[in-house]
Each structure stands twice: as structure tokens, then as C-alpha cells.
From TrEMBL:
Record-given protein name: Acetyl-CoA C-acetyltransferase
Family the entry assigns: Belongs to the thiolase-like superfamily. Thiolase family.
Natural source organism: Nocardioides taihuensis
Keywords tagged on the record: Acyltransferase, Transferase
Molecular function in Gene Ontology: acetyl-CoA C-acetyltransferase activity
Superkingdom to which the source organism belongs: Bacteria
InterPro entries, per the entry: Thiolase, Thiolase-like, Thiolase_C, Thiolase_CS, Thiolase_N
EC number: 2.3.1.9
Record-linked PROSITE patterns: THIOLASE_2
Thiolase N-terminal domain mapped to chain residues: 9-260
Residues in Thiolase C-terminal domain copies: 269-390
Length: 391
């Protein structure tokens, strides 16, 4: 057996700017979108691409331009060595965060030394849940509703992220005004981060077919509480509106995970190490409460407290998800999503995990923090947690 590595290092992390729905990246093929960050990652780290053991990309709705193992296709589209394999994984919103976990686990086991982990999603080209629409042609409209086993366990109740977001708002007594204030802060923080150049280290501009270059996130808005208050709720009498939900968008992101042996052998300079990784499940009907249980588990396993964590990233699928998580764990807002989150920056599902990690890493470096904790809710009532330590 190969010798296990005592650490899994993050050498570098990059992402495209996030394009709004129908925006700058809408016409870019998903394989080309992912290839762009793979090329940039290899170039920035100076690593020999032929030494990479695997390429793991998260992606959901793997049909059309995202079908056929887009991780493998993207590596080849990038012109990189064809002996390097690739695999595409789906843990819903946490797909690329799980890609990091698999990469780190391969390194920590001693079976791999250099692994690229990332994700891609063109939600403009392939709408969210498009795979379910295709499934209707074969007699199944959802992954679970027609299953007798599912119905025997959970009944015929509606299972959706929108219902879950409403249920969370009701259970934790989170009012619409509180969610809109949180959403407004997300936009203000994101716009400030862009203005101050906080994303410059992580963002790799994308040349477009029209000869222009796309270099700035498109989703943050100039908005107000008054504008948000005028929106109709998604469900009659509900509290959730489009203003307090993440935006549909397009992006790709990737990072390089390396063993101690690879760092020394390839002359790499790591930026962080993976201090902890775990994933937990929760009630799939509630669906979006997973980060609460998962974060508690991670803190218990590591012996760390909320006070020990310098920065938190909890994906803003909906404002109610993050506010309930903050409430349960007593996490102060001034340590959470300090450069904005999915409400302002968008949630390109398969790419979000490593998009957030690139941002978290850069912000730890900017502020001099040591530990950053990242988590997100995921379909099926799951949540990944990664704690990284800045070096």
C-alpha cells in the first residue's frame, strides 16, 4: 500500500465570474466553461498536468452539453493529457464541495497525490431540474415520488426546496422582513467586494465569442427593502419571494489538492490544508436543514467552537436556511458570507462548492484568519462541511 499523506493541501483555487441567467456565459458550452478553469489552474500552479491522478467535477442535470461525463470532456477540451481520467459527481448543490472531499480523501489515503476538484453548471442552457423533465418521457416525473418505497416511508406530501424554505421560516419564526434585510446585506457585501477587488485573485476572466472578455460577476443588484417588499411570495400567503432566494446563473470553478509528497516533488506552494471534511444527512422532506446537523457534527469531531472559526460560508440557497443555521449555532452575521452569497452572487449548482471555497480561501488570506468553515444545504436533506486552515 502507498504511504498515506498526513495532510491534503489546497494549492490554488480559481473560478470564472458568475454570469446571470441569459447573461455573458449563457452561450458557452459547459465543457468549454469547465475547460477554462482547468487550463487556468494548471497554468497558475505550474503543475505538470500529466501528473494529475484524477479530475473530479460536480454537475447536476447532466444532459445535453453536461452529459457524457463532462469532467472527462472538459479536460480533453482543455488540450490536457488524455491519460488523465475524469469523473462527474452529483450531490446536488454540494456536488463540487463533495468533489473536494473525494480529492482530499484520495490524497489522505495515499492512493493519489494530485487531484483536480471543481464543478460546472450552465443553468441558462440546461434549466434546473431539466433531467426530471426528460424523465417524464419515460413515465417518471421525479426521482422519488413514484417510488412505492418512498411513499411508504414519507407519504405523498410535497417535497421541494421552496416548501422547505417556507417550513424553515415558519419553524424558526423568521419573518419576511428579516429575510429581506439579510438579502439586501448579501447584495451590498457582494457589490463592495467587487468594488474593492476582493475577488481578483480567484476570478479568471473568460474570453467570449464576440471578442470581449467577461471578468466581473453579473448577479449582484442595486436593490432596496422597498423593492423587495413589493414582490409577490412564491406561495400564496408565504414569506419566501424571489428576492430571498439564490439566483439562477452560470459558472465553473476548480482547485488543486495535493499530498505532502506532491508538494515537495513538484515544488508547489500550498495556500491551505483541509483540516476537516464530513457530510451528514437530515430529513429529506425538510431538505434544507442539513447544515445545522452537519456543522454541529463537524465542530464536535474537531473540538473547535464557533469562536475558533474566523469565517463561515453557508450557501444562500434561501435566506431562511442561513438565518435558521445562524440562530441554532449562534453564529454572528459579521462572520458569515462576508463578501455576499448565493442571493447576490448566484448559485451555479454544480460549481458552487468550489466557487465558495475559492472565495473563502482568498478572504482568509486577506484578513489573516486561520480557520474557515463551509457548508451548504443539498437535495435529499444532506449537507457537506469542510474546514480549511490557511497556511
Amino acid at each position: 500500500m502507498p504511504e498515506a499523506s498526513p495532510h491534503a493541501y489546497i494549492v490554488d483555487a480559481v473560478r470564472t465570474p458568475v454570469g446571470r441567467r441569459g447573461g455573458a456565459l449563457a452561450g458557452v458550452h459547459s465543457a468549454d466553461l469547465a475547460a477554462h478553469v482547468l487550463t487556468a489552474l494548471v497554468g497558475r500552479t505550474g503543475v505538470d498536468p500529466g501528473a494529475v491522478d484524477d479530475v473530479i467535477l460536480g454537475c447536476c442535470d447532466t444532459i445535453g452539453s453536461q452529459a457524457g461525463d463532462v469532467a472527462r470532456t472538459a479536460w480533453l477540451v482543455a488540450g490536457l493529457p488524455d491519460h488523465v481520467p475524469g469523473v462527474t459527481i452529483d450531490r446536488q448543490c454540494g456536488s463540487s464541495q463533495q468533489a473536494v472531499h473525494f480529492a482530499a480523501q484520495g490524497v489522505l489515503s495515499g492512493t493519489q497525490d494530485l487531484v483536480v476538484a471543481g464543478g460546472v453548471q450552465n443553468m441558462s442552457a440546461i434549466p434546473i431540474s431539466a433531467a426530471m423533465l426528460v424523465g417524464k418521457e419515460y413515465g417518471f416525473s421525479t426521482p422519488f415520488a413514484e417510488s412505492p418505497g418512498w411513499r411508504a416511508r414519507y407519504g405523498d406530501q410535497e417535497v421541494s426546496q421552496f416548501r422547505s424554505a417556507e417550513m424553515i421560516a415558519e419553524r424558526w419564526d423568521i419573518g419576511r422582513e428579516a429575510m429581506e434585510e439579510f438579502a439586501l446585506a448579501s447584495h451590498e457585501r457582494a457589490r463592495a467586494a467587487i468594488a474593492e477587488g476582493r475577488f481578483e485573485r480567484e476570478v479568471v476572466p473568460v474570453p467570449l465569442a464576440d471578442g470581449t472578455t467577461f471578468d466581473t460577476d453579473q448577479c449582484p443588484r442595486e436593490t432596496s427593502l422597498e423593492k423587495m417588499a413589493a414582490l409577490e411570495p412564491l406561495a400564496p400567503g408565504g414569506r419566501i419571494t424571489a428576492a430571498v432566494a439564490s439566483q439562477i446563473c452560470d459558472a465553473s470553478s476548480a482547485l488543486l489538492v495535493a499530498s505532502e509528497r506532491a508538494v515537495a516533488g513538484h515544488g508547489l506552494t500550498p495556500r491551505a490544508r483541509v483540516h476537516h471534511l464530513s457530510v451528514r444527512g437530515d430529513d429529506p422532506v425538510w431538505m434544507l436543514t442539513g447544515p445545522i446537523r452537519a456543522t454541529r457534527h463537524a465542530l464536535e469531531r474537531t473540538g473547535l467552537t464557533v469562536d475558533d472559526i474566523d469565517l463561515f460560508e453557508c450557501n444562500e440557497a434561501f435566506a431562511s436556511v442561513v438565518l435558521a443555521w445562524m440562530q441554532e449555532l449562534d453564529v454572528p452575521h459579521d462572520k458569515v458570507n462576508v463578501n455576499g452569497g448565493g442571493i447576490a452572487l448566484g448559485h451555479p449548482i454544480g460549481a458552487t462548492g468550489t466557487r465558495i471555497m475559492a472565495t473563502l480561501l482568498a478572504e482568509l488570506e486577506r484578513t489573516g484568519g486561520r480557520y474557515g468553515l463551509q457548508t451548504m444545504c443539498e437535495g435529499g436533506g444532506q449537507a457537506n462541511v469542510t474546514i480549511i486552515e490557511r497556511l
